[in-house]
Amino acid sequence: MNKDYCFSSSFACAMEQFLNLKTATGQDCRWLKKCFKELDRFAIAEKLSQPEMTPEFVEKWRKSLTNNSPSTIYQKLTVWSMFARYMNRNGYNTFVPQLPRKEPKSFVPYIFTVDQINRIFHECDTWKLKVHHTHSMLFAMPALLRVLYGTGLRISEAVSIRNKDINKDEKYIHIRKTKNGSDRLVPISESLMLTLNQYEYYKSKLPVRGISLLESLYFIKADGGRVVSHSVYGMFRQLLEKCGIPHHGKSHGPRVHDLRHTFAVHSLIQLSKNGIDLYTAMPILSTCMGHKCLSSTELYVRLTSSMYPELQEKCSPTNAFVYPNIYHHE
């Protein structure tokens, strides 16, 4: 079932069965496999001879997660709890971990100003490395950052784009590997299309085998290597420093992901200037960003309204009443 890891603990059989069930229903099991891998190794380390969880076993595991955030622990416990219920329905007798009360998030994303976005693009366009390495991502960064800001894609989605996913005739990008496991089409503006055309022109000059194949990755290094998310994070931090934009530490941004938040807010501002009620624009933005529900998008409406109070006057009071305050973000 899992080509990268073979389960060998007392939970192995039940894990394989559960993964087969989830895969058969078309669900994305990457996070599930990651959690199972951790559970499998922990069970082996604890020399668990029977496929059953006990309160003591779960508590010992929780205390071992010293480097995990509360939200990550909550997500892992959700998987363990779901798996334990499945086991009990199939003849096992095991403890079902209880989920802690989840506190609402009060995190407010960093929204770049238009001036900051322009400075980031300018510095990226004129950035020259002191030492020339063919494995540098700088070749793809100007186009990649513009795609992130111009479409609201997650970085993981952007670096997974392949040549076949860019539809120039109808001006959209087909996003296949998404956080929520469903495909979507994201429109490309005229200015972004010009950027992509320029990027493709120079990319075609690279002496890389198979660079134009439909299945080949769209964003690549100068040597044809894959662009990975964590390397983009590092280079983006350097860009912020070159632009004089202070970084406030881990989890406080600005981050690459804040380009997605900025896209949402700037899009709502533009839609409002075009005479569209912010709440009426929510379904459009929600579809474009790949949100599972409107509540995720509603955060941006309230954030935009708080940043630009004059736009709130253009919103229907009825629409604002329909949607409650939302504290989480995606």
What does this structure look like?
The protein has about 325 residues and is mainly alpha-helical. Helix content is about 50%, strand content about 5%. The chain contains 14 helices and three strands. The chain has helices at about 10-25, 30-45, 55-65, 70-90, 115-125, 140-150, 155-160, 190-205, 230-245, 260-275, 280-290, 295-305, 310, 315-320; strands at about 165, 170-175, 185. The chain has a three-stranded antiparallel β-sheet with strand order 1-2-3. A hairpin with an 8-residue loop joins strand 2 and strand 3. Helix 6 runs antiparallel to helix 8 and helix 6 crosses helix 10. The longest helix has 20 residues, at about 70-90. The chain is globular and about 60 Å long. Mean pLDDT is about 85; it is low at about 315-330.
Quick recap of the structure?
With 330 residues, the protein is mainly α.
Secondary-structure topology with pairs:
Blueprint: H1 12-24, H2 30-45, H3 55-64, H4 70-89, H5 114-126, H6 141-151, H7 155-158, E1 166-167, E2 172-175, E3 184-187, H8 190-203, H9 229-243, H10 258-273, H11 282-289, H12 294-307, H13 309-312, H14 317-322
Antiparallel strand pairs: 1-2, 2-3
Helix pairs in contact: 5-9, 6-8, 6-10, 10-12, 11-12
The secondary-structure class comes to mainly alpha
Number of strands: 3
Q: Stretches where pLDDT falls below 50 for ≥5 residues?
A: 316-330
- H-E order: HHHHHHHEEEHHHHHHH
Percentage of β-strand residues: under 5%
Helical segment count: 14
**Silhouette:** globular
Main sheet: strands, sense, barrel: 3 strands, antiparallel
